[in-house]
Amino acid sequence: MKTFKYLTLLFVTTLFIACNNDDDSNPDPVNEEEVITTMTITLEPTGAGTQVVMQTRDIDGPDGPEPPVVTVVGELVVGATYNGSVAFLNETETPPENINEEIEEEDDEHQIFYIAGGGLDVTTAYTDQDGDGNPLGLTFTLTANTAGSGTMTVILRHEPTKPNDGTPADAGGETDIAETFDVTIN
Q1: 160 neighbors 172 (Cβ within 8 angstroms)
Q2: Domain residue spans in the chain?
Q3: Residue 8 and which of 22, 68, 72, 101 are 20 to 30 A apart at CA?
């Protein structure tokens, strides 16, 4: 009889523990990452030169079968300084969703990096900051130093370490979108 009582007690205890709901009735909301189909970088000359626009557009989204269409319209002018801005859109929605609004609201959780490579001689500087005074990158300046051509990689990082040394490697976080553009300076 003792064994029966012991097994019954063990069964009831196990049942109680198994049925106990330890789940939080108010879980933290999930902050889903936005779909970004289009990134447009616009460079307006402060003096001589014409506007330069770099764009990557992936209308079916990053998981779709079609590759993005990458374009660069215009060339940089040697010695010219440009006021730059970047716009992010989700064009899978109608009307397209402006992702810049979320980036501005969560500025401490984002940073845009501008990386010259392949012989491209440019200097970039952030002209905007997050609420803590760290670089954000929705606006920036770019100076075309010497003639040549190379690449400009633009990366939007989510939840980077801030402050950082200005490189994606030091910043960490997750890449929301990245593209490399072929750029010419004449």
Answers
A1: yes
A2: 35-185
A3: 22
Q: Which amino acid is at 143?
A: T
Residues present in the chain in total: 186
Rounded Cα gap, residues 186 and 184, in angstroms: 7
pLDDT tens digits, the chain, 186 residues: what are they?
444 444 444 444 444 444 445 455 555 444 456 799 999 999 999 987 899 999 999 998 888 899 999 999 999 999 999 999 999 999 999 999 999 999 999 999 999 999 999 899 999 999 999 999 999 999 999 999 999 999 999 999 999 999 999 999 999 999 999 999 999 999
Long-range contacts of the stretch 125-128 (C-beta < 8 A, 24+): 127/83
Tokens representing residue 162 in the block: 């801030």
Identify the sign of the CA torsion 167, 171, 175, 176: negative
Top-level CATH class of 35-185? mainly beta
Which helix (H) or strand (E) element contains residue 90?
strand 81-90
Encoded tokens for 50: 């014409």
